[in-house]
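Job type: complex structure
Entries:
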Amino acid sequence: MSHTSESKSGDLTKTGMALKHDREWDYELDRIVEAVDERDAKKVGLQFPEGLKRRGPAVTDDLRERLPDDVRVLLSGQPCYGACDLDTYMMRRTDVFVHFGHSPMKESDKIIYVPLFSNVDVEPILEDSLNELADPDENPDVGLVTTAQHMNKFEEMRTWLEERDFDVHTRRGDERLTHEGQVLGCNYASADIDADQVLYVGGGKFHPLGLAMEHPDKRVVIADPVNNAVSIADTEKFLKQRYGAVHRAMDAQKWGVIFCTKIGQGRYDQAEKIVEENDNAYLITMDEVTPDRLRNFDMDAFVNTGCPRITTDDGPRFHKPMLTPGEYEIAVGNEPLDSLSFDTFHGTW
Amino acid sequence: MSHTSESKSGDLTKTGMALKHDREWDYELDRIVEAVDERDAKKVGLQFPEGLKRRGPAVTDDLRERLPDDVRVLLSGQPCYGACDLDTYMMRRTDVFVHFGHSPMKESDKIIYVPLFSNVDVEPILEDSLNELADPDENPDVGLVTTAQHMNKFEEMRTWLEERDFDVHTRRGDERLTHEGQVLGCNYASADIDADQVLYVGGGKFHPLGLAMEHPDKRVVIADPVNNAVSIADTEKFLKQRYGAVHRAMDAQKWGVIFCTKIGQGRYDQAEKIVEENDNAYLITMDEVTPDRLRNFDMDAFVNTGCPRITTDDGPRFHKPMLTPGEYEIAVGNEPLDSLSFDTFHGTW
């Protein structure tokens, strides 16, 4: 996701990743030093999420102190907002490659994934969330989900709720998800549980909004331990934007169909099918999907088969309507308007 | 080069690439169709420079009409401002890959380079340029250079000048350049000739400004057949910006040293040397070097070992001073201020 100029909900700078206490992240330097030693590595690549890139120099300093002089530490300057944003160039060109802050998207001997668990205490915010959750005497069923950086507290959250008589429903989701109860910006299969309410514990609104879009029948309670606020996910503004984009695209003659070349985002068959069936559709391949890159294409609308969050969250920043594959089917009249649903990746690689 | 928001001299939209007459570009469809046939290709990738991306759909339509139904045409959405911007992902994933509008940067059986020569008549602008060139009776020596898209008229230009008693000096330059008399944004070795004046025939000021920076002792006459204007390259504004950036960087503690991963821009040894000698320098690797990507790094200044034109032309758009490797040596006190010179690539790959 590219959140470049404006600060908005969902922006990583509004999550714990950018808070003052990040001095306390555990970068697991021992594991890195050990891997360098074992492999007699000469080049070590480090990739941080956007919100932690500014920590790169300090981590480099700490590593340099502990590594032999002839080992070179490289920082990835590629955009990094999620597990898909693996710097594959750096991965190929370094002997040890460390990706911080996301779950593994691709397993390899060469990659070290350092999860960067948050040290934020979740109990106070769980306490606050009771105001928004149903009374367990009336409706004890509640789903529980969180993000990679709070996974270390997941059992603590579950126990806390169970001790207050909730019947906590959790699920590992599909193979795209590493942990039980984990959500990704593009995958909420861990919330496919038998409860009308889901408690999301984590920073920002980016994940819970996706969750609420994917599960419009569920009430999504946001317990944000980072910004210390409890709220209910409200998808109305999002939905209006989506319907607006679909309507504006209904008159489109020329369609640009985007195939994203990033690992974990490739839905080539879907992109190809659209182009096969529509003579006015053109296949465009790219890694970063940004407004600048699409401006020079003379298209009336775009369908993005890559990251759905680029479409739904960054959509308004593009000069022409940008739709998900499902929304495209509505815009060209293949599906009815009320079939509009959130676009997610289920086990796609 | 990324010229996204503002229109300025050097912008490709101000060159022949974006003019109305581009219907007349020769896309060499026969060559492409033949290659598809020979290789029994199923996927054809097309990469256009930014200024011609809007022509992609029409070229795709023309190709689809002539190719078997099961051949898929893909358009590259990667930024493309020069020969370095080869879409290597697309190159690997297609059976035939066509790069339009630039000279070959990497030779491969799979790549078809279509030069897209301009059909603009150069004689009227040569006539106008006589007002700025020295009288051949007094000083007949003149260098002659042009860009890839006007190479088809190079002999015509030379003959025209010789018929008017000029002694025309031309040179192939080094191995980075494909043609005699050709300049690239990063290489002006073809102007290393024995003449005090150089005539540049081509669109825009991007190339002649680089040429004048590289050869401050020569008068560079710009004959622009696209915008129909003759002028003299004036580097004063550029030089002021460069000195300003160097001065601002003199107080820098933390340096980001950029290694660009693009084909033809890799000066790793240079980047590594800086990091080796400066404990406060950190190696950052990336493909597109943009202000957004560097904003999250907590650096005081940057040294760019990649495309020098990002540094000199886009420099002011970055939040911190961005220097060339030579300028860095001045800023840290290794070289005197008057050693400032234009950064170019000579045969670097």
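Summary: Chain A has three domains: 27-114, 123-232, 236-339. The interface with chain B takes residues 2, 4, 45, 50-51, 53-54, 56-57, 60, 72-79, 87, 89-90, 93, 254, 258-259, 261, 272, 275, 279, 282-289, 292-299 of chain A (CB under 8 Å).
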